[in-house]
Design brief:
Elements lengths: L14 H33 L30 H34 L4 H15 L3 H13 L9 E3 L3 E4 L2 E4 L1 E4 L3 H29 L5 H19 L5 E4 L2 E3 L2 E3 L2 E3 L1 H27 L3 H9 L4 H31 L11 H12 L2 H30 L5
Antiparallel strand pairs: 1-2, 2-3, 3-8, 4-5, 6-7
Length: 391
């Protein structure tokens, strides 16, 4: 019998070794590419007599910001100015996501309606908005709608003392009184009770297979605490401050600027069209047999939509919905076109004053990246919970 000598495969012919070497070579090439870019940037900065660093953020800003949700003045630092812009971006993004989700869901359901007029009106809106340029739409919304409102001296007053002017929309606003502090604790208790009610109802729904209206009951619980607490405290915790016209300005109440309204309404109307299409696609992905089976056991149309169709459609809706949320957040940088001081607007002013282009652009990119990662993480977590569990 002839002895067969076992010989190992040379590493240059071993597929596993070649795959690892290929990945290492690609990673090295990417690192080398970025090393060259950074070296070129550092060399260019040295020629201009500057170095990288963020210590300039402690310098005095010296410019005004029209809308601030925290204390800010010309003597504040660049860091505080950037924080004002960041909070403005967060405000527009969060409110925009909530409103566009509500409007988009209504449009998506209306698109599937059996009513011919409702279905066609929804379809026309979706097609129109999806084919518009967002930048053009924002400018049109700002110039042709909000700046065309009456002047302050000729303000249109709606019921409830709502003032419509080209300098902003004045709304009644609650001012805290001496009993507001105990009332706030009652509201916190109401929020805790609402969360507890939601958890209990969710547990009951999983055990019985009949999900109750969790959000509605949680909201009613919180509202009950708010109403009862209002009468329990010795005097009203809030006093309404109404807007009024004095000279060429509005005083009192809460004045929402045209820039904010134009940006928010433009983003909501535009993004809701895409969300509507996402919702429609999700609803169509549910088998018709599921709807027929639910009707066969006596469920109403609303119960079928809430208990059968939407739970199954969510696994299709959530991934593209996440992309729309990210798009809305990033599109908020178009605020510079209508003069709303969001993060990009403020950063651009800081950049022009300090000349720190690399640092400011890096800071803006890093902030938007953080927003995107947090949004994606939350939506992925929700997507995992919404997935159907197969037994």
């Amino acid at each position: 019998m002839r002895n067969q000598k076992h010989t190992s495969i040379p590493f240059w012919r071993d597929e596993r070794v070649l795959q690892v070497l290929g990945q290492v070579a690609f990673a090295a090439a990417v690192i080398f590419f970025f090393y060259i870019l950074i070296q070129n940037m550092v060399t260019g900065l040295q020629r201009q007599g500057t170095t990288l660093g963020f210590s300039f953020l402690q310098g005095t800003a010296g410019f005004d910001i029209a809308e601030t949700s925290i204390t800010y003045s010309r003597t504040s630092t660049y860091a505080q100015a950037f924080l004002v812009g960041l909070l403005n971006t967060l405000q527009v993004s969060l409110v925009g996501i909530i409103l566009s989700t509500i409007l988009g869901t209504i449009l998506g359901v209306a698109r599937m309606s059996s009513n011919l007029l409702v279905r066609n009106l929804s379809a026309a809106y979706l097609e129109l908005m999806r084919n518009l340029s967002l930048l053009v739409f924002l400018i049109f919304w700002y110039l042709a709608v909000f700046l065309k409102l009456p002047r302050v001296a000729e303000a249109v007053i709606w019921p409830g003392q709502i003032h419509l002017t080209n300098r902003g929309i004045g709304l009644p606003w609650g001012l805290p009184t001496e009993t507001y502090e105990p009332y706030r604790w009652i509201l916190w208790a109401g929020l805790a009770a609402a969360v507890l009610v939601a958890l209990v109802l969710h547990y009951i729904g999983k055990r019985t297979g009949k999900p109750p209206l969790t959000a509605l009951w949680a909201l009613l619980t919180f509202a009950a605490f708010a109403v009862v607490g209002w009468f329990v405290v010795p005097s009203a915790p809030l006093s309404l401050d109404y807007p009024s016209v004095q000279g060429l300005n509005m005083v009192g109440g809460k004045v929402v600027t045209p820039e904010f309204m134009a940006l928010l309404s433009g983003l909501v109307l535009y993004t809701a069209a895409f969300i509507g299409e996402v919702v429609r696609a999700g609803l169509q992905a549910v088998s018709k047999g599921q709807v027929e089976a639910s009707r066969a056991i006596g469920l109403t149309g609303f119960q079928t939509l809430r208990l059968v169709v939407f739970p199954q459609a969510m696994r299709v809706i959530i991934p593209p919905l996440t992309s729309q949320y990210l798009n809305l957040t990033k599109n908020s940088s178009l605020a510079i076109a209508v003069g709303f001081p969001d993060m990009f607007y403020v950063s651009n002013t800081i950049l022009n004053q300090s000349g720190r282009a690399v640092e400011m652009i890096s800071l803006v990119m890093l902030t938007y990246l953080t927003f995107s990662l947090v949004t994606s993480w939350f939506m992925n977590w929700y997507n995992q919970r919404a997935q159907l569990v197969e037994r």
